[in-house]
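Q: I'm writing up a methods section and want to include an example of the input and output format. Could you take the sequence below and give the corresponding predicted C-alpha cells, formatted cleanly so I can copy it straight into the document?
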Amino acid sequence: MYTQFYGLNAKPFRLVPNPAYIYLSSRHQNALTYLEYGLTENVGFIMLTGDIGMGKTTLVRHIINNIESDVEVAVIFNTMIFSNDLLLMILGEFDIKYDPSITKAAALELLYNFLIDCYAKGKKVLIIIDEAQNLTNEVLEEIRMISNLQTDDEMLIQIMIVGQPELKEKLKSSSLHQFAQRIGVSYHLSPMDRDETYKYITHRLKIAGGSEDIFDNSAVNMITEASGGIPRVINLLCDACLVYGFADEVNPISADIVEQVLADKGGIGLYTHYNTNIDDKQLPDAQLLTGESDHSEEENSIINLIPCSINENNYLALCHRVDTLEKSVQILQTEMQSHINELKSRAEFCRDELVKNLQKLLLAEKTQNLKIAFDYVSRMKEKHLHTDTSLSFDLDE
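A: Here is the clean output for your methods example:
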C-alpha cells in the first residue's frame, strides 16, 4: 500500500523472521560470535536468551542458513510437549524411520546409531530448541540425558536452547543443576540503544530498496523511547508510521506521525515500552462512567466497577498479572500431564522388560525340558541296547 509512495520494493518491517533483513547490532554480533564459538569448539550445550521480540529466532535462522554442509541440524519450534514426544520429534527431524509404537529405549538406540553413523562420516549433529522456556523440567532432563550419548572422548551431539529470560530463572532450580552445569556457552540479548535503533531502521529500509531518511531524527528518537530498543516493537511502530504517513502524504516521517500512532495504539495492538513508563494519569470520572475509551465493551464494564483511585495503568498491570497467572496454571497442567505420561511410559517400559524376561525364562525352561527329554531318551536307548546284548549272549549259549 505505502511501498510505492515511499519508493520501496517491499515492506521493510514485516514481523516474520527473515534472515535477509537481519541487522547485526553490537549485541547481536556478540551473540552470533558466542554461538559460533560454541558450535566450532563442540562445547555441548549452548544457550541464547532475550526478551520477546529481540530477534532470537531470526539469529537462529541466520545460523542455520550459514551452517556448514557437514552438520546435520534438527530444529524444534513446538515446545509444549512431553518427554516422550521430544525423542520422536528429533527422530522425525533427522528423517530416522521408526515405528509409532516404539519404546523410549528403542528410540534412544535409533538416535544413538544415527549419531555413531554421523561420527563415522565426520559429520556433526546439532539440535536447536526454540522457545525453550516452555519446556517442563522433565523434558529438560530428557534433553540432558540425550546429551549423554557420546563416545569416550567426543561429543556426538550439540544442543542449542533458545528462550526468554524465564529460561534462565527456571535453570536456577535445584532439580536442574545438572542441566545448568552442562551449558558451555550462554549469551543474553539486551535491547538496542538509540544509535543502533537508527541503524536498524535505515538498514531495513535500504534492504527494501528505499531511502535511509524516510524517518527523521525526531521520529527515531520517539520510536527508540517507545519501543525500548526491541526490534519487534520497532517493526510494529515503523510499519504503522508508514501507513499513517502514506494516508497523510507525509515524507519524511516525523515525530507527529509517531505520536499519532502511539495515541491510537489500541487499534493496532501495540504494547510498547512507552506504555509502561508514561506518568500515571487517573481517568476522568466521566470516562469511567460513560466507558469512552479504547477498551472493549467487556473491559469497560470492568473498569466502570473500579474505584476512581485506581487508574488505567494499574488496571492494565493487574490484567497482565492475571494473564501471567493463567499461563502459569497452563504450565502446571502441562507438567502434571507430563508426569502422568512419564508414569505411563515407565509402566510400558517395565511391562516390555517383564515380557522379555518371561520370554527368556520360557526359552530357558524349554531348553531345560528338551535336555531332560534328550537325556532320558539316551538313557532308555542305552538300557535297551544293554538288554539286547544280554539276550544275544543268552541265545548263543
